[in-house]
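Message: I would value a second opinion on how I read folds in token form. Give me a protein, with the fold worked out from its sequence. Write it directly below this note and I will take it from there.
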Amino acid sequence: MGSIRKRVLAVKEETTEGTVNAPAAADANILIYETRSNAEVPFFDRRPAEASFSPRPGIPGGKGGNITGRFELRGSGTATTAPGWFNLLEQCNMVAVDLEAIPIGAITSGPFVAGETITGGTSTTTAIVAWDAADGDPNVYVHTVSGTFSAEALTGGTSGATANSSGDAVLVGKGVRPSSSRGTGDGGSATVDVYKDGLLERYRGCRGTFRIAAQVDEPGFVEVTFQGAYVSTTDTALLGGITHETTLPPLAENIGLTIGGYSPDLTTLGLDFGNNLFLKKSINAANGVKAARITGRTPGGELDPDFVTVASHDFMGRWTAGTEAALQCQFGTTAGNRVRIVAPSTQYAEIGDGDRDDEHIAQARLRLNRSADAGDDELFIWSY
């Protein structure tokens, strides 16, 4: 048959949950690695009471399936244009937000900290701080929640930091943040087409989860898993007319990763959004499956930092005390190809005793927690 390397993944959001919205070339501009799709068709096993033990034909039941793949962590090439892979994360209960810069003067009682709400003293405009801003930084990066900033005093709701702004926020990039409302109903489901060098396998009502994975000397990747209702497999040529983004992915080098302000030596990073997926079944749905649904999430991660002295970074003390701290890092330095990842409130969930090339390391597992009481703020991904 065809080559395993000649594959295309096309994903398009549905207007009505579970109703096919056929993807086109514009929905397939992501360079995808190791794409796989597997239909799952349970059978009703007919075992009536009779003289012979020989089985009778089974009846295929609700038809679902899953699709997996991974793609490079990189920008679109234009700072204020979201990379194509952000669209896939929107089918994983993330929502698109703008990244803005507010020009500021000196910061008092700083820094402003990632995830906190800042408020304009005159306009009462509110925004979420995208990442830490210290005295001397010319801007504080935010995404505005409501209102319009003016030349006014800004105050951080968590840090108590203050600074005077010289005007409104300016759009400088794009981002995604968690949602708890796209997991069911219209909005958030997608039709996924997997082209397999002469075959087209289609799924509808798809939703997913994702994991960010980085290893030193390699690009960062986002690994996705979708579930949905199987539709059909047809003889279809590979989708043509695709215009791929051409930016080269930055390597996982000099990414400035810090946790609680500490910068460790490490070789791997993993952050798992941890959505709970299930197939919503209905006797009124075609093939017995309405769509995939998201019922919750357990975000976490893992690191392999060198073990250091307690004075440098108290891994065990922070773990046993349940200390929360921000994790921040950035891939790339070129405008339009910078991806910054911020988890404002992480905890060590476990510190294991490990080694790397006979050096003592901490096998660290992470919890990613809500930062504000309202939640939906445990992980931000920014492209700028």
Notes: Helices lie at 85-90, 315-321.
